[in-house]
Amino acid sequence: MNNKEALVICRCEEVTYEQLSATANEHQCTPRELKLRTRAGMGFCGGRTCRVMVDRVIESIVPNTEEGEIPLKYQPPIRPVTFGTVGENHD
Fold it and tell me: What is the DSSP letter of 70?
């Protein structure tokens, strides 16, 4: 595995370039379907951190996108949550 394949594209869902590429090749996905299958951009941050990178990587993997395709909407969380809060142990 080279460095490009090991690159984590979406930190919240821990989606790598290799996962995006393998899923796109296996299922011949549209960009929307690829995001839904891998959950790229759907983590705690709601895509605020990785949205641009996810979109650019997907465009390079799935070059021919249809114009009538419905894009995924990005929606911030109801309340911003810090990574410290997410990692707290409430036992």
Answer: P
Checking if the pLDDT of 23 tops 80, the result is yes
Helix H or strand E segment including 15 = strand 15-16
Q: Phi first, then psi: what are they for 43, rounded to 5°? A: -85, -160
pLDDT in tens, 35-70: 889 998 888 888 888 888 888 888 888 776 665 566
The residue written with tokens 């109801």 in the block is: 78
Distance CA 19, CA 14 (A): 10
Identity (one letter) of the amino acid at 2? N
- The whole-angstrom separation of Cα 87 and Cα 36 is 25
Rounded CA-CA distance 82/22 in Å is: 31
- The rounded distance, in Å, linking the Cα atoms of 75 and 72 is 9
